[in-house]
TrEMBL record:
PROSITE patterns: C_CAP_COFACTOR_C, CAP_1. It holds the Pfam family CAP_N-CM. Residues 213-222, 240-258 have a biased composition (Low complexity). Residues 277-289 have a biased composition (Basic and acidic residues). This is Adenylyl cyclase-associated protein. Residues 213-258, 273-313 are annotated as: Disordered. Residues 312-448 form the C-CAP/cofactor C-like domain. Belongs to the CAP family. SUPFAM superfamilies: C-terminal domain of adenylylcyclase associated protein, N-terminal domain of adenylylcyclase associated protein, CAP. Residues 223-239 have a biased composition (Pro residues).
């Protein structure tokens, strides 16, 4: 152990001597002191990389292609975080704008990974998406206190991995009997975060990074003014992982729908915005209205009615008791985090989206959804899947009852705490239940029967599922 420590110190000193030739570090900051490079938390980060990152890299080397490319970016992000941790020990705590600029190198790597999931869907989409979602765990370094809008660092790492695990489990299931290199990669990626990064944060930064009280000040990049005659800048891109504006919880959004109507009625000023209808505005007096409906008008009415049936996307808490998630299409990052055991969640008309429910709720209903993924922790009453096609549901806690009705294609992932759940199916097909098995908690897949034999015996019918035997 002592020889290993001495070897690392010598490597650190050699690197410092190289950097001192230029007088600056890789980010253009003053050179790192030996006391910082030999800090126990920095050496522990090296141990984290040596123990867990090396295993992910070795598995990716065997696979190659996009899996290797995204793995290199993941390890680059961890390397950038180590550099930031070193700089934090020499930098005073910045304001929010300064923090965004300080974390920019890490955010740039994360955006590169996210860009790999865009465009045409890759054969390794689940690998790319799992790796990309996992990198949000590195945002624990942005925790500045209980009022910053983030969970505590340890909880943030665990919660961030939960979303990535949805895609990581798909890799395990898909390649379980095809290619063990992919299975090894998925397991190694999980261990990099749980227990790897989580235990590191727990041991060294349970309350967040510790900034220097007497170090240099973090600089904020001033906005650059466009040159004279230059065109207007494009609109700002979507908020990045480290946005300077705190995220607004869904429960604090302005009132919509009937709540807004009742508020208007209670104000006593209901008719203030109404216009008076004159005689020439009435339908019977309008010359441009006839009893003949043109073909173009039929098409217009048809298209407008189809739009009204779909409705606008919605993610809101109604009357304080029911979460409504409706008409979400192509949204992979839907989250409900401010919920309790008295509230229910109703998911309707969503397609190609993923919803994560962080906390215990009373009931979950998934209705008329296609290619929808739902990840939840605990449910008090039941989780119901109705009129759906190709959905995936993962229970990470407990669920007493799960029912599937009139659904084609449903994957249920159960945790150890939910193995006692009662599963009811009706008018459904292609239902598979995956449960953790073995010492490594590998997923064991079980298909629920959809064909039955009814035989009349002893004055009553006896029903048994059809068993298929192959050569």
């Amino acid at each position: 152990m002592e020889a290993k420590l001495i070897q690392r110190l010598e490597a650190a000193v050699a690197r410092l001597e190289t950097l001192s030739a230029g007088g600056i570090s890789e980010r253009g900051l003053p050179e790192i002191g030996v006391d910082v490079a030999s800090d126990p938390s920095i050496l522990a980060f090296d141990d984290l990389m040596a123990e867990y990152a090396a295993r992910v890299s070795a598995a990716a080397e065997k696979i190659g292609g996009q899996v290797l490319d995204v793995t290199k970016l993941v390890l680059d992000a961890f390397s950038v975080q180590k550099k930031l941790l070193i700089e934090i020990k020499q930098t005073q705590k910045p304001d929010m704008a300064g923090l965004v600029e300080f974390l920019k190198p890490l955010n740039e790597v994360i955006l590169k990974v996210n860009a790999m999931t865009e465009g045409r869907r890759s054969d390794f989409f689940n690998h790319l998406k799992g790796a990309g979602d996992s990198l949000s765990a590195l945002a624990w370094i942005a925790y500045t206190g209980k009022d910053c809008g983030m969970s505590m660092p340890i909880a943030h790492v665990e919660e961030s991995w939960q979303m990535a695990e949805f895609y990581n489990n798909k890799v395990l299931v898909e390649y379980r009997n095809k290619d063990q290199n992919h299975v090894e990669w998925a397991k190694a990626l999980k261990e990099l975060y749980l227990p790897g990064l989580r235990d590191y944060v727990k041991s060294h930064y349970p309350l967040g990074p510790v900034w220097s009280a007497s170090g240099k000040k973090a600089s904020s990049a001033p906005p650059k003014a466009p040159p004279p005659g230059a065109p207007a800048p494009p609109p700002p891109p979507p908020a990045s992982l480290f946005s300077s504006e705190p995220s607004q919880p869904s429960s604090s959004q302005p009132k919509q729908g009937m709540s807004a109507v009742f508020q208007e009625i209670s104000s006593g000023n209901v008719s203030s915005g109404l216009k008076k209808v004159t005689a020439d505005m009435k339908t019977k007096n309008r010359a441009d209205r006839t009893g003949v409906v043109s073909a173009s008008e039929k098409e217009t009415r048809s298209s407008s009615s189809s739009f009204s049936k779909a409705g606008p996307p919605k993610l809101e808490l109604q009357m304080g008791r029911k979460w409504a998630v409706e008409n979400q299409i192509g949204r992979k990052n839907l989250v409900i985090d401010d919920c309790d055991a008295k509230q229910s969640v109703y998911i309707y008309g969503c397609k190609d989206s993923v919803l994560q429910i962080q906390g215990k709720v009373n009931n979950i209903t998934i209705d008329k959804c296609t290619k929808m993924g739902v990840v939840f922790k605990d449910v008090v009453a039941a989780c119901e899947v109705v009129n759906c096609n190709g959905v995936e549901v993962q229970c990470q806690g407990s669920a007493p009852t799960i029912s599937v009705d009139n659904t084609s294609g449903c994957q249920l992932y159960l945790s150890k705490d939910s193995l006692g759940a009662s599963i009811t199916t009706a008018k459904s097909s292609e239902i598979n239940v995956l449960v953790p098995t073995g010492p490594d908690d590998d997923w064991g897949e079980h298909s629920l029967p959809q064909q039955y034999i009814h035989a009349f015996k002893d004055g009553q019918f006896e029903t048994t599922p059809v068993s298929h035997s192959g050569a």
